[in-house]
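Encode chain A's predicted structure.
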Amino acid sequence: MSFADPFLITIFAVTALALLGLPIGHAMIAASILYLWMSGLDMGTAAEQILNGMYSNYIILAVPLFILAAELMNIGSMTDRLMVFCNAFVGRFRGGLAQVNVLQSIIFAGMSGSAIADAAGSGKIMQRLMTADGKYPASYAAALTAATAVIGPIIPPSIPMIVYALVSDASIGYLFLGGVVPGLLMAGMQMVLVAIDARRKGFPVEPPTPIRELPGITLRALPALMMPVVLLGGIYTGVTTPTEAAAVAAAYALVISVVLYRSVSFADFYESVRSSAHTTASIGMLIAGALVFNYVVTVENIPQHLSVLLASWHLSPTTFLILVNVILLFLGCLLEGTTIILVILPVFIPTAHALGIDLVHFGVMCVVNIMLGLVTPPYGLLLFIMVRIAEVPMRDLVRDVLPFIGVMLLSLIIITFFPETVLWLPHLFGYQGS
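Encoded structure for chain A:
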């Protein structure tokens, strides 16, 4: 491969444009058009790939709908009622508010599918509650909020898993089921670490909620708690597709917030729609750029070349999974997660399939790995969000988040070497493997 090779120049162009500040989606589109021109191909193919990919994939519609559902939950009083519910059950223990932070992330994970939405919504509330009257150091509260928000895209529904299904043709329903046990495993390890920290650092004990108040608190939170049941029940009973379930989730959140809780004004609704549109446009440009760039990768036969190369190394499935984890952990420090799923994973999927690795197990493992990148320096998007919310120095936040990264890496190791942690629940619902 010479320095005048169109593909090599394309890679340089993507990197240079991204470093100059152009959004990565735009950079991939511009560099791909350059490749088509240098290769003598029809430059209109770029538009054709975007149109065919964006408008023929019904599954993509689920992304903006789940984002809208998360925004509607955050503007209503659903979040506050769920916080009170979580505090009633685990707030009475030492470090109870920190445990509430983990528990509320498990509940919100079953609603939004987005780590960013969890951190910016319920995470902002938890930051305020934990730091009130100096109960917890601001940097520890921010680190815990960032770490627990990672659970959001692992427990269903999950926007990253929807994007993975787009590039792998794996079943969204079984991917969602596969994320349940890993998400709960990660949350359980975080709760154990919080319990250890609470004893070691002397975190406060919250006043216990009287038992007689629990039924009333549960009843007030019940409409919000029913959202994951409505959402996932529709998918697994076959009543709705995942995309239709996303629409139901958005409508349910709107009805509960406006009609039942009466906590949303028109201005709030408008702002949630505007914010959802902004986030959707950002993700949409990433998908559009990846569709064009993946066409370039296909023309260059990169997946086939990589498969031949890896086959010559005679890797076992376990060794291959270790290699993929190492690569993704490194890339997660530098790149945005959706970009990795759309651009990097399609290169590995043919080899994984050829080695007999189940694509649901592979997808959940990769999503867990990539989500770690959200809290991994130097890029960690959740770190930047929490620095802004908590107003703490980045060095303090990184110091406090490292132990949580450690337990999440342990979870990743378990998920990698014990596929049944992912596949047990899908098998229970009739999954035959891929």
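The mean pLDDT is 84.
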